[in-house]
């Protein structure tokens, strides 16, 4: 039970902006505080983080722990873990919540081991049971089934949530939060890594939940060979290749590239669905995409109900035509 204890949201940011996943976690945090009591606290680590104060307050944070120093400019696993562990041992929160991003997964597992507490990772949802215990709902066995987990420990509980299942409340005017500047003497002997440079992520291997552009194929693609057409389009757009459950089961695309309720929950700027009819399980995984283009031979395909651009046609003709147009425009502007 974590009744009445503070709930911490570990905030991620980059290029001077808060990550959408962190705003979604604050929305989840407000729901938790309403059930459990305590205060909703945002923990922000970085070089210059004071500029986030007003925004975090508008999204519901009652307290802000600011760990601000030039040494914290870049995420370094062992340093961030040591900072959070020291902070948790001093202030004793009930829950620590992180987004299941690359950074969040890495930090949560290290922190749980450091504090010797339980970790529920990659949660899709949570709820309270009849005894008042918090239950974590998370996919297991490659997303084929969902497990419900309960932690009976009275100590700190840590869980990560899938970033693209999070709803984000509208910002609201609020009173100034309590600001708690934190100064912790770093133990530099624990640092085993140094950030040298940042390289652009390879769209072919980036986690789909973090991809900006996704070209996805379904049953209508017809074969692994036809998936090459989609790969060409993804390459021209600088995007990532994804697929439906049928495409994965047919071995046209690896399982880690599956989009849907039992795969990756995505929210890219652009999602191009090729030969995907729009089963509810798939729609649940990509409905929050900013722009959706759907290509299908069936004008009544369910995917068209949520698409911004609807193309009724054979993808084997439509996709090469789009690729041709993109190549021409690139040539003309070169």
Describe the structure.
It is a single chain. With 334 residues, the chain is of the alpha/beta class. It has 2 domains: 7-190, HUPs (Rossmann fold); 208-333, Rossmann fold. It is 28% helix and 25% strand. The chain has 8 helices and 17 strands. The protein has helices at residues 20-36, 53-58, 77-91, 102-115, 227-237, 245-249, 280-286, 315-333; strands at 7-11, 13-14, 17-18, 40-46, 63-68, 95-99, 119-123, 125-128, 134-140, 145-150, 157-161, 178-181, 213-217, 240-243, 270-274, 291-296, 309-312. It has a 7-stranded parallel beta sheet, with helices on both faces. It has a 5-stranded parallel beta sheet with strand order 14-13-15-16-17. Strand 2 (13-14) and strand 3 (17-18) form a beta hairpin. Helix 3 (77-91) crosses helix 4 (102-115) and helix 5 (227-237) packs parallel to helix 8. It is globular, with a radius of gyration of 22 Å. The model has no long low-confidence stretch (mean pLDDT 90).
What attributes characterize this protein structure?
334 residues, alpha/beta, Rossmann fold, 2 domains, 7-stranded parallel β-sheet, 5-stranded parallel β-sheet, 8 helices
